[in-house]
């Protein structure tokens, strides 16, 4: 798979794709927040109205995304933590023109990766714990090819956003496939304390809020 740190251009494209993922979420109406102390650079909390989810933003320059197994081989690093995977991919690995952002439910992605893992083990592949298992965004599954099982993540889905990589301008503002939000809900004291605590790096019990009529 592509060495995304192989050249300065690839490093720059990786950063551009990650930023595109965050931009797509914001344009879909989500507030994107870092999660303090989680230790995963790709993981974000997204909030809209009374709805909150944990997501992992994954970028790919060859149209395949990867997650590694955890140390005891009971699940997936990062993938087990999230409600959605925001997969940001180029349209073509050899001649990329566009970046596309897909927001996919975590349960679907976990199920695809579970099937991919089992299929490859059954085919005799060696997959050391900690090594990424790769699944294609655009290649449909072929039961006779173990490496294709789980693939086709983007097939039949509309991207949140499609952007020209050359012009860095939005080429097509696609309808959002993000989960529907509830009408803007009033902010509770508990939520306000939680958000302020995350901002200032303290525990919620250290936050005091005074409301004057």
Describe this entry's structure for a reader:
The structure is a single chain. This protein is of the alpha+beta class and 213 residues long. It has two domains: 8-182, no CATH class; 184-213, no CATH class. Helices cover 23% and strands 24% of the residues. It has a seven-stranded mixed beta sheet. A two-stranded antiparallel sheet has the order 4-7. The longest helix has 20 residues, at 8-27. The N and C termini lie far apart (60 Å).
Element layout with pairings:
Blueprint (H helix, E strand, L loop, with lengths): L7 H20 L3 E4 L8 E6 L2 E10 L3 E5 L15 E7 L7 E8 H17 L9 E5 L24 E4 L5 E3 L16 H12 L13
Parallel strand pairs: 3-5
Antiparallel strand pairs: 1-2, 2-3, 4-7, 5-6, 6-8, 8-9
Query: How would you spell out the order of helices and strands?
Result: HEEEEEEHEEEH
What proportion strand?
15-25%
Per DSSP E runs of 2 or more residues, the count of β-strands stands at 9
Query: Describe the biggest sheet?
Result: 7 strands, mixed
Inertia-based shape: globular
Tally of domains: 2
SS summary, helix count: 3
* Secondary structure category: alpha+beta
Q: Strands across the major sheet, in which order? A: 1-2-3-5-6-8-9
State Rg. Answer: 19 Å
Intertermini distance: 60 Å
């Amino acid at each position: 798979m592509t060495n995304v740190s192989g050249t300065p251009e690839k490093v720059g494209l990786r950063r551009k794709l990650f930023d595109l993922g965050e931009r797509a979420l914001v344009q879909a109406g989500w507030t994107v927040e870092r999660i303090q102390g989680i230790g995963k650079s790709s993981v974000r909390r997204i909030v809209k109205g009374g709805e909150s989810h944990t997501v992992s933003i994954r970028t790919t320059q060859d149209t395949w995304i990867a997650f590694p197994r955890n140390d005891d081989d009971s699940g997936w690093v990062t993938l087990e933590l999230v409600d959605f995977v925001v997969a940001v991919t180029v349209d073509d690995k050899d001649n990329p023109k566009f970046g596309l952002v897909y927001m996919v439910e975590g349960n679907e992605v976990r199920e695809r990766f579970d099937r991919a893992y089992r299929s490859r083990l059954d085919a005799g592949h060696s997959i050391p714990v900690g090594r990424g298992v790769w699944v294609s965004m655009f290649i449909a599954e072929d039961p006779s090819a173990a490496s294709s099982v789980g693939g086709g993540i983007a097939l039949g889905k509309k991207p949140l956003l499609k952007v020209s990589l050359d012009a860095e301008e939005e080429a097509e503002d696609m309808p959002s496939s993000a989960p529907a939000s509830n009408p803007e809900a009033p902010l509770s004291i508990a939520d306000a304390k939680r958000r302020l605590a995350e901002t200032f790096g303290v525990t919620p019990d250290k936050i005091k809020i005074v409301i004057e009529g």
